[in-house]
Amino acid sequence: MNPPEGQMVDYLRLSVTDRCNYRCVYCMPPEGVPFIPHEQILSYEDMAFFVRAAVEMGISKLRLTGGEPLVRKGVPDLVALLRAIPGIKGISLTTNGVLLPRFADALKAAGLDRVNISIDTLDPECYRSLTRGGSLEAAFAGVEAALRASLEPVKLNVVMMPALLPELPGFVTLTRDRPLHVRFIEWMPVGGCGPHSPVDTLTKTEVMAALEELGALGLGELRPVESPEGWGPAHYYRFPGHLGTLGFIGSVSDHFCGECNRLRLTADGRLKNCLFSDHEIDIRDAVQARDRVEVLALIQESLEAKTFDKNLLPGRTTRGMSQVGG
Ligand code: SAM
Ligand code: SF4
Fold first, then answer.
1. What is the C-alpha to C-alpha distance for residues 76 and 56, in angstroms, rounded to an integer?
2. Which residues fall within 8 angstroms of residue 221, CB to CB, at 6 or more apart?
3. Which of 22, 193, 256, 310 could bridge across to 131 with cysteines, CB 3.0–4.6 Å?
4. Nearest bound ligand to the CA of residue 183
5. Percent of the chain at pLDDT above 70?
């Protein structure tokens, strides 16, 4: 399908690793997912070679993701390699945050612009059970490290599970005095997380209604605002006087595939043009042969096969979220 008039594909999500220090219930089955063998993982130089070609094809914004990107050694080195590529206008990182206290300054110095940190609950016990062993305190230490290092705007990703509703006042409070941008995301039954996962998602409409009720209880009117710097489909709102914002990503209910601006590269070099599809193109051999012309042709092939079908719905794909990078 041709892209809608004026639609640019300018955003690449780069999965640095499929490994993770967590096993979130909405992302992976309890036993985890089989790891890609080390020898099949792209080196940082391979990734930078690919990105140089991708820039020629229109890519200018990068997000590093995973698995947990910060469990791979030397991510600041990767950021520095990518930052040096002419045509790259922005680099951000999605992380569970727990390794940020160790790496935030080095990431900033290497040229990382900003971070999204996944925190789905404000209750330490609930966090431990959702992540299957994680520490909420460590995740918030990551938030503080990101703010201190000016990796801003700092966004918090919250997958909307039913237990979220009583926690909404807490998330709203987070945006009151700090420049934190909480983004509520509809859970997607992608990959292996579906049948194993005890998760059910709330919709954007349900959470929005609950927030408006809070407004009626004295917080004032929730008003739409411009997106804090971002490249995705989120819509943002703010309560009067709050420093931060509340955003929504209606991954299932919004049907935003018609405006999709992204490609994804897995850690083993598969180029994916849609999170909801198994279509992928192996670019690893061409990248490792440093065959620029072939890499450009493969990117073109992926772009031509990209569907902008608004009626697409998430479904059972072979790779799960941690293997694609969300
Ligand atoms: N480990 C990092 C993290 O958790 O932020 C980066 C990788 S994670 C796969 C990227 C994003 O996908 C996270 O914000 C996570 O909450 C989200 N995610 C994972 N599984 C999801 C699902 N089934 N539906 C919606 N979002 C999901
Ligand atoms: Fe790991 Fe992120 Fe998936 Fe949680 S959401 S299991 S932290 S990749």
1. 24
2. 215, 239, 240
3. 22
4. 1
5. 94
* Residue owning tokens 């971002």: 230
What is the average pLDDT score of the chain? 91
Cα–Cα distance measured from residue 39 to residue 225, given in angstroms and rounded to the nearest whole number:
46
Q: Is 307 helix (H, G, I), strand (E, B) or coil?
A: coil
User: Cβ of 196: how many Cβ atoms within 10 Å?
Assistant: 15
Dihedral Cα 43, 48, 52, 55, nearest 10 deg: 110
Specify the residue with its C-alpha closest to ligand 1, atom 5: 95
Length of the chain: 326
Ligand 2 binding residues, C-beta < 6 A: 20, 22-24, 27-28, 66-68, 96, 118, 321-322
* Beta carbons of 167 and 144 less than 8 angstroms apart: no
Radius of gyration of the CA atoms of the chain, in A: 19
Averaged pLDDT, 309-316: 64
Ligand 1 geometric centre to CA of 178 (Å): 23
d(CA 270, CA 274): 12
> pLDDT grade, residue 195 (50/70/90)?
very low
What confidence score (pLDDT) does residue 140 get?
98
Residue boundaries of the structural domains of the chain? 11-324
Q: Which CATH number fits domain 11-324: 3.20.20.70, 3.20.20.120, 3.10.290.10, 2.60.120.970?
A: 3.20.20.70
What's the rounded Cα separation, in Å, for the pair 88 and 113?
A: 11
Structure tokens at 167: 């926690």
CA of 317 from ligand 2 middle (Å) equals: 17
What's residue 309's pLDDT?
A: 72
- Give pLDDT tens digits for 49-83: 999 999 999 999 999 999 999 999 999 999 999 99
